[in-house]
Amino acid sequence: xxxxxxxxxxxxxxxxxxxxxxxxxxxxxxxxxxxxxxxxxxxxxxxxxxxxxxxxxxxxxxxxxxxxxxxxxxxxxxxxxxxxxxxxxxxxxxxxxxxxxxxxxxxxxxxxxxxxxxxxxxxxxxxxxxxxxxxxxxxxxxxxxxxxxxxxxxxxxxxxxxxxxxxxxxxxxxxxxxxxxxxxxxxxxxxxxxxxxxxxxxxxxxxxxxxxxxxxxxxxxxxxxxxxxxxxxxxxxxxxxxxxxxxxxxxxxxxxxxxxxxxxxxxxxxxxxxxxxxxxxxxxxxxxxxxxxxxxxxxxxxxxxxxxxxxxxxxxxxxxxxxxxxxxxxxxxxxxxxxxxxxxxxxxxxxxxxxxxxxxxxxxxxxxxxxxxxxxxxxxxxxxxxxxxxxxxxxxxxxxxxxxxxxxxxxxxxxxxxxxxxxxxxxxxxxxxxxxxxxxxxxxxxxxxxxx
Amino acid sequence: xxxxxxxxxxxxxxxxxxxxxxxxxxxxxxxxxxxxxxxxxxxxxxxxxxxxxxxxxxxxxxxxxxxxxxxxxxxxxxxxxxxxxxxxxxxxxxxxxxxxxxxxxxxxxxxxxxxxxxxxxxxxxxxxxxxxxxxxxxxxxxxxxxxxxxxxxxxxxxxxxxxxxxxxxxxxxxxxxxxxxxxxxxxxxxxxxxxxxxxxxxxxxxxxxxxxxxxxxxxxxxxxxxxxxxxxxxxxxxxxxxxxxxxxxxxxxxxxxxxxxxxxxxxxxxxxxxxxxxxxxxxxxxxxxxxxxxxxxxxxxxxxxxxxxxxxxxxxxxxxxxxxxxxxxx
Lengths: 452, 330
What we know:
The complex is a heterodimer of chains A (452) and B (330). Chain A is mainly alpha-helical. Chain A has two domains: 2-167, no CATH class; 212-451, MetI-like (MetI-like fold), CATH 1.10.3720. Chain A is 72% helix and 0% strand. Chain A is built from 19 helices and no strands. Chain A has helices at 3-22, 29-53, 61-83, 88-91, 95-117, 130-153, 159-167, 170-187, 189-192, 231-267, 269-283, 287-299, 305-335, 338-346, 350-358, 363-386, 398-405, 416-419, 423-448. In chain A, helix 6 (130-153) packs across helix 8 (170-187), helix 10 crosses helix 15 (350-358) and helix 12 (287-299) crosses helix 13. Chain B has two domains: 2-92, no CATH class; 102-290, MetI-like (MetI-like fold, Orthogonal Bundle). Chain B contains 15 helices and no strands. Chain B has helices spanning 2-31, 37-42, 48-57, 64-76, 84-92, 102-137, 142-156, 159-173, 189-195, 197-222, 226-233, 238-275, 281-290, 294-322, 324-327. In chain B, helix 10 packs antiparallel against helix 12 (238-275), helix 12 packs parallel to helix 13 (281-290) and helix 13 packs antiparallel against helix 14. Chain B starts with a helix and ends with a helix. The chains are: A mainly alpha (452), B mainly alpha (330). Chains A and B meet through helix 5, helix 11, helix 12, helix 16 and helix 19 of A and helix 1, helix 7, helix 8, helix 12 and helix 13 of B.
């Protein structure tokens, strides 16, 4: 088995096992868990014994743990030197690297130990490993999905797209997959969502992910909020509203900024000076602060959905200053080219010059900037909504949902399913920005040919 | 040295001019719009005379530029005015209570915010330098790749997501730190740090990622230079090559990034203060925005803008001072 193939094989094996277990009802996972528990039993015993032995030290216990790790690190290097009779790998190993290996081994052991503990029965006690399982399953699912998606992409499609998929790193494949999922959720929200985004049901505060006997409900898999709205539906509609509005805002910011930047680059002179100085002043105020200020001013004129429109315009104008800077710089490099001079001498109009001569030659940097700008706008809108000043109800929106569900985080000690609620919309925001950033990172690295 | 002084003075003057223009923009943005406090305080059913009386009293009837220069003049003498909320309260009490000026309201909050930002910088700068140097040293390794994914994720996450995750694990499940940052005047330093550690850690997560990536990039940029090659060939240890030979030359861009990130803290602080109900300027600002308390909004906005301009200015000056090539532009 080559090193390159181990990732896909592992991913396929995990996907196969989970599919057999969950979809076909064959109990293949339970023996694996039992095996893990048997293997980890001695580690569990040692860890528990160490824990009780050092109980008296209280808060200073972690110093002892660090000392232990460092000691084991030095011992590991010495042992390696003795066993391999001073192979260069162990002979030249610095202390930092040795401790690093031990640290990594300890981290893996810690994860396995907690995972083995997470499936022992907790008999009515609150499920302390809920979040641990959630994070670990999430990471494994992300790895499996990204790997299989990359595999699929390198088999299906045109020769060009197949080559692209083969060369792309796993993080970029993950990013593309997530962006596709969000796009589907946003476009078909009305079809996917089981309920309406503003529909209020008589039963509020239904607990997510638990059977009916414990206060859950099969109609509302993720429960309902304080006034009885289905959280799953609101999350799906949130993709439409939050992502859609952020997308429209970014488009508007680009239309404004690119036009202004290219105009300044083409015309030079006083137009350039005036626009640049205006942008300088607008950029001297932090973006979030400035948009809060302008929204205060706008809120005395508008309310409800027209305030949302006002917010779109305000954020687009503030963000267009950053786009202006970039497109002016890119445009400046293009207007000195011969083909541009030729078009000018042909007597082409300003519209033709900007959109037919400059724009096609500036798409690569603008596209990467579009991804980053989108993330920035998306996060700004989420922050504004979180502060209660962004997207207005009754539209479902992730920032507002985090604000509304925020208090549930305090239930984590005895009802972790509740505490998960504010993290769902917040995580949805983070996941999309991470995905876009992964893709932009890959695009930038490809275009600059950075290999390091 | 005289030329450096001249450059610094030039930049300071430019910064002051920017601040002046910014103050005009801030004042203009909220004062040129129709609908005002007088109408808001009295409600829809107010008589025209009552509205006019209040407008006269707080000077809303004066021409725009007179109002702007009055405001600016008062600012210059340290008088930030009185918040509408205070005025409303005083009116409700029949004008018997003492009006508390914004200066007294803001001073302790300003100190709190500065404390939070300082605490964050104190944690974030050494940590990000350390991780950045390590990632440059072991570039391409598992550690580097994990650090890359981790930092990219924490840059792209909204502040409140990081805040809730920290609350969940450190405050609710771990029971180690308080989830509400109850900071008061006259608290002992230890308790103050303990209470504001969770917001500081959240901000640290946000800024560390960026600073660490820039440190790594700045050092790796230098590793291709001949003098590093020389040091390596004469048998200097890899860690020493980076710390002794590469780091001093990479310091200029790193200092620049640190200053810019502290400027970024200014906006990050708003959301984080709201999540943890930390009594700082960001919290006051959001409250004022929600209540449309124009005088407070203006002052807070100006403070944020001034801090932002000052930090950008510092980044600019430091990069000129540390890089002699910029001191003699062609």
